[in-house]
Amino acid sequence: MTAAYRVLFTDLRSDQVLDAIPVDGMSFDDYIGKSGSLRASIPVTSAEMARRVQLLVPARTAVWVYRGGQVWWGGIVWQATPTVGDRGAAAYSIQAATWDSYLDRRVLMTTYETPPGGVDQLDIARELVAYTAEQPGGDIGITIDYGQVSGIVRDRTYSRYDQPRIRQLLDQLAAVQGGFEWRISSELDEFGARVKRLVLGYPRITAGSTDVVLDYPGPIRVYSDPEDGGGRATHWQSRGATTNRNQAADSNPMLTDVQEVAGAIDAGWPRLDGTSDHTTVEDPATLLGHAQADLGRAWTQTTIPEITITPGDRLSPAMLGATVRVRRRDLWHPAGDDRRYRVVGMSVTPPTRSSGETARLFLEAA
249 and 125 in one domain? Predict the structure, then answer.
């Protein structure tokens, strides 16, 4: 039996319930490493419903999606569009994004500097998120867990004159060589209260202690193995901040030495160049770490299956970071294929009158 979905709208800052309204055509996704999204439409069949939906003001309304008794998605309504069709049918379409999208709308307006000797990189991440809550009106209830450390100490100075977005600083900090992963999860605590929790993982976010086994034929309904060489690189150079303060002299940004994948050219690969900009980075060692990490990601592209399954009882948003075993036997794998992957994204489509519930999993090599 397919679990029932319920959508709850609350005030973003206080989490006070505004309304519980049925929606049509809903789909939502969540990821490690980027914001997830939700799209849905609310049928407006009366003046009373029109009044109710107008209380769902973008940028100050939160949306929570329940599947059964568990929270499966949470985020902020950023766009809402009242529409009327050619036959007079009215609807209120909404688009929302996960909680981390709020950090795209927050700017560091006070210079941040680590103490002499630096601090653990996870503590820098916590302090940046805590900063957003310290400003009047900036606390949207993100819970920060302290204690976990990575053992990697960083020296960082973020100038208020650069007006950096908090999300930008977190992503840059996480993307350097030896970095970490982060996301903001939607959960229920032991008392059933809704929680927005900052999740940090070094070197990666993981979940679960045992592999979930998915077979084709079996729970896997369809799959694809996309392979794209367009982003692969054998050589890389990163560009940093302009450090020349003499306005009378030529002003050029800092550049790393060209980094290369050892042995790639000798192995027959053509030279493939890549570049990246880190315009707020003034430290050469930090910029080099970015270049090495960027090259590593560009070079180690592998073919990863995208699979669509029927959710069932074993699937939940808590699987983000979990390891799955994908076993396939078909025309492409006549001898069988059995590999382990980590779940880094999930896209869910609830059931409709004409189709069943599906979940699409996005994977990376475990």
Answer: no
